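Chain and conformation:
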Amino acid sequence: MTDRPRLFLVTESPAPSGVGEHMLTLAEGLRGDHDIVVAATPASGLLARARACGLTVKAIDPGNVPDLSRWFARAQPDIVHVHAGIGWEGHASAQAAHAAGARVIRTEHLPYLLTDADQCAAHRAGLTHVDRLIAVSDAVADSHRQAELGNRLTTIPNGVVPPPASTRPRATLRRYWALDDGPVLLMAARFAEQKGHRLILDAMPAIRAVHPHATLLLAGDGPLKWTIAREIAGCGLAGSVRMLGQRDDMPDLMAAADLLVLPSRFEGLSLVALEAMAAGLPIVASDAPGNAEMLEHGRSGWLTPAGDADAFAATVIDALADRDRLRAVAIAASDHQRDHYDADRMIRDTAAIYAEETSGAPRPDGKRMTRIGFIGAGGIAHRHFGVLEQFDDVAIVAIADVDQSRADEAAARFGAQAFTDIDAMLDAVPVDALYICVPPFAHGAPERAAIARGLPFFVEKPVALDIATADAIAAEIAAANIVTAVGYHWRYLDTVDEVRGLLAHNPARLMSGYWLDSTPPPQWWWHADQSGGQMVEQTTHLIDLARYLAGDVTRVFGLAGHTDRAEFPGLDVPTVSTASLQFGSGAIANFASTCLLGWNHRVGLHLFGDRLAVELTDRDLMVDVGRGRPVRGAQGDPVWHEDRDFIDAVQGKENRIRCPYADAVETHRVALAIGESARTGTAIVLGTGA
């Protein structure tokens, strides 16, 4: 386990934009000394950006406080840094993190804007879970102090990494966007009331009266986008105002523009303005708090009274009047940004706050977590995800899948790391045990990777595609003496426990199993060289259950047939199969399987003994002893029980695993023998019957 501080950067904002950029800048600067997870809502877009930077991510739902609490309790972060765009955000995460024993830092990215009494009270209560407040500007800090929320408040001004310079000449860029020789104004902001789009539209007629060819470029997205689009058309500005949408080419836009305009009603400390200063693009901004702190009027930019369109227009006209002065202001602004709003300074100051808050503080001493890695993130893996996230002593920390997007999505559910390579995952992330949830053809390498590292593992059935691989792995497991379990979850049904009790003194003499179902959609299932066919991949559950209830199989005879199906091109597995089995106990059994149906018709095992008839499915049990046919439903979740038994065994508690790997291999041997018998037309003798 690493001794590096575990740092979680969290935002509940549905549209973090600048907040998210700030978080990513911190993450990039701090990742060398911290283990970092970026947490945000799935719809925010931040998770994809963080993942693209190689960061571990976690999808959160601020409305699901129990889930947040479970996650923080399992993950046991040292520092949780909550980033709030407005006062009502971040409190659920802060409360859950505080309860988990983390030091909680909260950065306020905007001035204190709450006016509703209930919201104000909730915000004040939420701050009781916060150890330290950071404001991104003195203006933001002052607003919180005025609201008497300044306890342990520090100002760390926003800082930016200067954007890369455009590689294209200004004249080329202006031709590309069909911009003539008139001045170009750029506004890059989310379409929201805060940003003041209507004010710049109101100012444009006066600007164009002096500069008839002036063009305004609007970059961004947001809830008012189409409202602003209608207003542009309605006031006759469609020819001079262009809406560019969300952009990833801001260096080019800044190189083509003459001024950045920032008519905001309020700001914390605008990141796009700092980037413009770094890029040498002069700014005209409202004198709203945050802007006034950032710019010195007439020297490093221009300020104009907030909310005054006429004054804004006059200031833009004045700024454009003298090209030499414009260049001088751009140089001064660039110097000012470098001296006061540098990303390295922001990162360094933030790290100092972390050090202060954790100095001498014990690390969270929560319950010891069993760290689980997953190989495979398909449907059956998600079945185990749903169970394991209920356990308060388990943390899923790494997920590998050949499909990167599937690995990413699953990892974001847990704040785990995602990989496409098994060895890379195991080299990078310490785990206590593995779950191997891959198709039959993919077995072998995952198990051997686990054995090589002495890791216990749970593997989903069937354990391999062939018996040679399964036997070899079983021998390696025995030599390594590691804990294993296989997902034959029917063994864990409470109804099966009842049946075992009935059979203890009245053993089954005849069994009939049925797996009458549809064809599964994964294309690998359709091919015998990838799935092994229905007996191996599905009916194996019933074969295993029969072994669990009646003992070892000594003789097998199988038959199979195939029907081509146009809707399943390339399907080559048997579409109908039957098998007759003889057991060492003297019992006999027959199994019937088909994938020709479009629905699940019947899946279950019938057993018959002396004056005893039993019908067993994974949902219910019927026991007939000649006094009617009473049916009862199965209680509990068998997958929960098999997972709990595996985790307990990994933790060194009593080993109650009902199907270790070696036992599962014997079930697999029977299933493969059925297929071999069907191909050869001869009975196959197994075990002691040979």
Remarks:
- The first strand starts at residue 6 and ends at 10.
- The mean pLDDT is 94.
- The domain at 170-340 is CATH 3.40.50.2000 (Rossmann fold).
- Residues 661-680 form the longest helix (20 residues).
